[in-house]
Amino acid sequence: MEKSAVFFDIDGTLWNYDKFIPDSCREAISLLRQNGHLAFICSGRARAFIQDPDLLSLGFDGIVCSCGCHIEIGGKMAYEKLIDNEKLIETIEMIRGYGFRPILEGPRHLYMEDSEFGLDDGFGNILRRDMGSNLIGIDSNYGKWEANKMSCATDVDEAMRLECFDRLKKDYQIIEHSETVCELVPAGHTKATGMLKACELAGINPENTYAFGDSENDLDMLEAAHIGVAMGNGTARAKAAANYVTTAFDDDGIYNGLRHFGLI
């Protein structure tokens, strides 16, 4: 069997939001690599937000993150797209004018203003808990950022939100997770482009790619892979975009999906 590359989303795929990783997932990734295939994380998270030692202990041959803006292979950075800081200044000032609350996401730090994400903000508290000293201020580091992408709280009037999106769409891919949360990714970069770039860099035929995901920001990856596998706990759109639906992440979904295709 030719060497394949398998790309895994993190949240809802490798683990849940309490960071629970099933033992069957650990076994499956180990067997996959023993069989000579490559295992990649492929995440919308920035590299600075992929630091959990338990997650990384699963053993990955590479990391595609920030929706394709940062790629590591064999522990070495192989590709990076940073947003120009002049463009970031322009963007931040514009979106704040619409009431958006930005978080900048980069290879070493996430940038967030405590005044915009108070102690009653759930996501802000997750970042404070998980990022530690790698979570720093936007304004105190003004114009000195290293950011691949942004996330935004968009809990504003719908007409304001849509007007802002219309102004952003020339420079960014806008991923709407809900009416109150979006991601802004440099145009031309997606999980799918990152996956294919990683294959090019690793010498893998794109015909030998598999992708596992569960949600809206996995759709392009599921469609671009030769075989897209949606988790049983995934959204209806993820399942529709996939070639195959495995069981839920906590019902041996990774193991069953890899076994179904003879990769383990």
Short description:
With 264 residues, this protein is α/β, with parallel strands linked by helices. Helices cover 31% and strands 23% of the residues. The strands form two sheets. It has an eight-stranded mixed sheet. Strands 8-7-6-9-11-10 form a six-stranded mixed sheet.
List keywords for this structure.
single chain; 264 residues; alpha/beta; Rossmann fold; Hypothetical Protein, Haloacid Dehalogenase-like Hydrolase, Chain: A, domain 2; 2 domains; eight-stranded mixed β-sheet; six-stranded mixed β-sheet; 9 helices; 14 strands
Task: List the uncertain runs.
Answer: none
Specify the biggest β-sheet. 8 strands, mixed
Q: What number of domains?
A: 2
**CATH architecture name of the largest domain:** 3-Layer(aba) Sandwich
- Taking all Cα atoms into account, the compactness measure Rg is 18 Å
The structural class is: alpha/beta
The strands making up the biggest β-sheet line up spatially as 5-4-3-2-1-12-13-14
Q: Overview of this structure, please?
A:
- The chain folds into two domains: 5-80 and 189-260, 3-Layer(aba) Sandwich (Rossmann fold); 85-186, 2-Layer Sandwich (Hypothetical Protein, Haloacid Dehalogenase-like Hydrolase, Chain: A, domain 2).
- Helices cover 31% and strands 23% of the residues.
- The chain contains nine helices and 14 strands.
- The chain has helices at residues 23-34, 53-56, 85-97, 122-131, 158-168, 191-202, 219-224, 236-241, 253-260; strands at 5-8, 38-42, 62-65, 70-73, 76-80, 101-105, 110-111, 135-136, 149-153, 172-178, 181-186, 209-213, 227-230, 244-245.
- Helix 4 (122-131) links the parallel strand 7 (110-111) and strand 8.
- Helix 1 (23-34) runs parallel beside helix 9.
- The relative contact order is 0.18.
